[in-house]
Amino acid sequence: MKIKILTLFPNMFEGFLSESIIKRAIDKNVVQIEAIDMRNYSLDKHHHVDDTPCGGGAGMVLACDVVDRAIKANDNNSYKILMTPQGKTYNQQIALDLAKKDEIMLICGHYEGFDERIRDYVDCELSIGDYVLTGGELPSMIITDSITRLLDNAIKEESYEGDSFMDGLLEYPQYTRPIEYNGKKVPDVLLSGNHKLINRFRRKESLRRTIKRRPDLIEKANLSKEDLKLIKEIEEEEKWEHLVYCFIYHHFPQNMELVLWERKLINLLIF
Ligand SMILES: C[S@@+](CC[C@H](N)C(=O)[O-])C[C@H]1O[C@@H](n2cnc3c(N)ncnc32)[C@H](O)[C@@H]1O
């Protein structure tokens, strides 16, 4: 796959392209990533790429002729994406869709943004969230990174297939050694070696975490009969947790250590 990034600051990409998984993916020819300086497409002898906004106001606006020339000179049937806080909010499904394309072009704005007419030359507009950055460079790195790790031979498929959002849920909690740290132990089931029980535990905790943190995702998730059973169990457990917590809080409000006992008691009741 080829990813072309049109930017006014190509040097910003040096570190990004020369470390970790992205560097290895480039070295293995899984992906070709090119940061292209849009200033090269200015006809102005001082390489100006922007001008003051028509109608007045603060800041500078990227000129449409410069961006248009940069797009045309580098377009090889690319899927062209404008980086803008006004675009569709980026998510894992969009990353999966983009990872199937042969070539994409990410166009980074700066300053006040783009001349409105640039929107006519792109296939879509993407935002990485409801906040405003100084330029499209970080958003384009985020998009490039999230796509690259999904490409064949970038990382092992099993490394990302259980990730949050891949099946519409958040990932289950993960642990590694030491088995006990500051009084907190890795759940026994993960040390049992019983993969059926481990998978069940992970699916259940993934559902529990999504219900608690992202109820909006649960509503859209494709849940199996087994998932619905697990959700019933979670509801029962959470009911118990709530009851025990209320009991401790009402009877021993000053002694917060008891809250820790409450956690242990719940674990005893559940596992
Ligand atoms: C300061 S911003 C311009 C914001 C613009 N005046 C507006 O209110 O929509 C400069 C550039 O940074 C990039 N950018 C800033 N925030 C972004 C976001 N949340 N997602 C994608 N790109 C963003 C865009 O390329 C944008 O043209």
What does this structure look like?
The radius of gyration is 25 Å and the shape is elongated. Helix 7 packs across helix 9. The chain is built from 10 helices and 9 strands. It folds into 3 domains: 157 residues, Alpha/beta knot (3-Layer(aba) Sandwich), CATH 3.40.1280; 57 residues, tRNA(m1g37)methyltransferase, domain 2 (Trp Operon Repressor, Chain A); 40 residues. Strand 5, helix 4 and strand 6 form a beta-alpha-beta unit. Helix content is 42%, strand content 15%. The protein is α/β, with parallel strands linked by helices and 271 residues long. It has a 5-stranded parallel beta sheet, sandwiched between helices. The mean pLDDT is 93. The two termini are 47 Å apart. The chain binds S-adenosylmethionine.
Salient structural properties:
single chain; 271 residues; alpha/beta; Alpha/beta knot; Trp Operon Repressor, Chain A; 3 domains; five-stranded parallel sheet; two-stranded antiparallel ribbon; 10 helices; 42% helix; binds S-adenosylmethionine
Helix and strand arrangement:
Layout: E1 2-7, H1 14-17, H2 20-27, E2 32-37, E3 50-51, E4 61-62, H3 64-74, E5 79-89, H4 92-98, E6 103-107, E7 124-127, H5 137-148, H6 157-161, E8 180-181, E9 184-185, H7 195-213, H8 215-220, H9 225-251, H10 257-270
Parallel strand pairs: 1-2, 1-6, 5-6, 5-7
Antiparallel strand pairs: 3-4, 8-9
Helix pairs in contact: 7-9, 9-10
What is the element string, with H for helices and E for strands?
EHHEEEHEHEEHHEEHHHH
Question: What is the percentage of strand-forming residues?
Answer: 5-15%
Secondary-structure content class: alpha/beta
When the domains are counted, the total is 3
Q: Total number of β-strand segments?
A: 9
CATH architecture of the largest domain: 3-Layer(aba) Sandwich
Helix content: 40-55%
End-to-end distance, in Å? 47 Å
